[in-house]
Amino acid sequence: MKALSTSRKYLRWLLWPGLALTTAGLEAGFVDTRSTLPNGQLVAGLVLTLVSLVLGGFGYRSFWQNRSTQAGTNAVLATLSMLLILGIINFLSVQYAPRIDLTEAGLFTLAPESRSVVTNLDQPVNVVVFDSAFNPNDEQLLDSYRKFNDILTYEHINPFQDPAAAREFNVSGEGREVHLAVGDDKIFVQTLGVQGLTEQDLTNKLAQIGRDRNAVVYFIQGHEEFVIDGSTSGYAQAAAALESDGFTIEPLNLAQTAVVPDDADAIVIAGPKQAFFPPEVDALKTYLNGGGSVLLMVDPQAEPELDALLDGWGVTFDERLIVDASNTGQIVGLGPAAPLVTAYGPHPITADFDNGRSFYPLARPIQLAPIDGVDATPLLLSNSQSYAEPLSETGELNVDTPQAPEGPFNIGVVLTKQAQPREITEDPSEETTPDATENLSEDAASEETSEEDQDNAAETEISDVDEADANVSETPDANETSVDTPSADNVEAAEQTEAEPGEPLPLDEPEDKLEDESEKEARLVVIGNATFATDGLFDQQLNGDVFLNSVTWLSDLENTTLSIRPKEITNRRITMTVSRQIMVIVLALVVFPLVGLVGAGITWFRRR
User: Fold this and answer.
1) For the chain, domain boundaries
2) What's 438-501 look like in SS3?
3) What does the DSSP assignment read for 556-601?
4) Which residue, 1, 391, 401, 534, has most beta carbons within 10 Å?
């Protein structure tokens, strides 16, 4: 009996090699194809396990009633339950991939504009990345795009392994480039640098796919406006951002051209400091009232003399400056003279801004007067705790005046109205008569006849009008003319055109043209500050988005997205000189460890 008990004690240990062999056989079978070795391991493991369970005494009630057995079973079940829970959590996280982006610029979250652009894609787009190795960050960014629209696909091509594909996309040099394949079109996106694929470049190219044309934007120059060529601090960043969005940027000096070019989709007047000449104002007024679009930004203490342009819109600039008494600007290092805007009007330009922040150093309020036919919408609103303060005689602004809040003030406004049709001038030498038939003869138009002569004129034969080629019957009734004779309706339509008497009358074309002109909409955006979009401030907060969205909306392009654009990654690298690097190494490897050892030794010595 004692020998049987001893044999059972040793047979129990066969359980562990049996489980090990069984596990090895299963893993080998999953990893590789079934062969003799994995099958032998599996069979041997199952045999040893069964022998251990049957002959090792596990089947007796005394074994399962032991306290150690119950504790071990509970531990095994708890471990298996925890592994099962972790497996379920891991499965759900992989399937739904929740992500919380805590980075400053949202590096791992698509910007609102990117999400809107990729969601609105209506044709298949393939992103082709040419690189020797596929950057995991680029793949993660492209996967983020695909989550919003499966119509966007991507592929990685090694240009050295597939030179034919590289030649198809005109990839040159090292071949580290990104292109878009849209049908038969190949669109270059960017050259891969240290940061890899950038969301800003990819979104800009995707946004240009559905546009009907490339808009042309003219920046007015000649009145000390901010320059766009980068020669001095001005609007070089703003112009470069517009070009990245697919706009064509050109300077415009109205003193030289006298008129606004016909291809202008929008006009930008950024911070003029000198007065416009009256012919320049007339040219802008004609362009704007005829269905043009103008973005006017004026800093304080500037008098561009554009009252004649703004009179028909009900807009006037206040000479005072806005002072923000809420101290909210201190959060981002701004003073009270730079209002921080977090409230925006209900307009597509700022629809996605929510409570985003933009600031305007030294902004002047904009006054609005109701004008019939003009729709005015506040765009940028100052804080309710703000007030307006005039400049002193020495040009200083007193921000400590205990003045009651008067805000919010309009810093920016949007105005629209129906375009005015072109004016049609008539030849003053021509005299009109009530009788329609009299307009068919040049002789009858130049003579003053009595009413009886006018009645008899309808009975005469029209011989001077070759284009009409009609014979008028001798009856005084004008309705009895032949079918080739112009009717009274046609003659009335001829009076509304600029055609010379006796020429063929284009009856349908002028009416269609006038109808198209009447459907146009004149658009005007006025902001009481121009410094907010200058170099250095353009990429701060939402300042650049306010400018770019305003120009995009004014250009009236199809399939455009007005939202918050992707921000560039802020360079947080620390650049140190050689001496500073040596100092950091000495502190980290010598000084700090030595201080710790000395402190530990003193503590040990005192306790001893």
Assistant:
1) 2-95, 112-207, 216-419+520-555, 436-517, 575-608
2) HHHCHHHHHCCCCHHHHHHHCCCCCCCCCCCCCCCCCCCCHHHCCCCCCCHHHHHHHHCCCCCC
3) T-TT---SPPPPPPP--PPP--HHHHHHHHHIIIIIHHHHHHHHHH
4) 534
CA distances (Å), 602 to each of 500, 588, 607, in order?
111, 21, 9
CB hemisphere CA count around 357 (13 angstroms)? 14
Would 112-207 and 216-419+520-555 be classified into the same CATH topology?
Answer: no
Share of the chain above pLDDT 90, in %: 38
The 10s digit of each residue's pLDDT in 287-339 is 999 999 999 999 998 889 999 999 889 999 998 999 888 877 776 677 888 89
Domain range 216-419+520-555, its CATH number among 3.40.50, 1.20.58, 3.30.70, 2.60.120: 3.40.50
Q: Does the pLDDT of residue 107 top 90, yes or no? A: no
Interatomic CA distance for residues 591 and 581, integer angstroms: 14
- Rg from Cα positions in the chain: 41
d(Cα 507, Cα 492) in Å, to the nearest integer?
10
CA distance 457 to 327: 84
Do residues 330 and 516 make contact, with C-beta atoms less than 8 angstroms apart? no
Report the CATH superfamily, name and number, of domain 112-207: Glutaredoxin (3.40.30.10)
Categorise residue 473: left if φ over 0, alpha if ψ from -120 to 50, beta otherwise.
Answer: beta
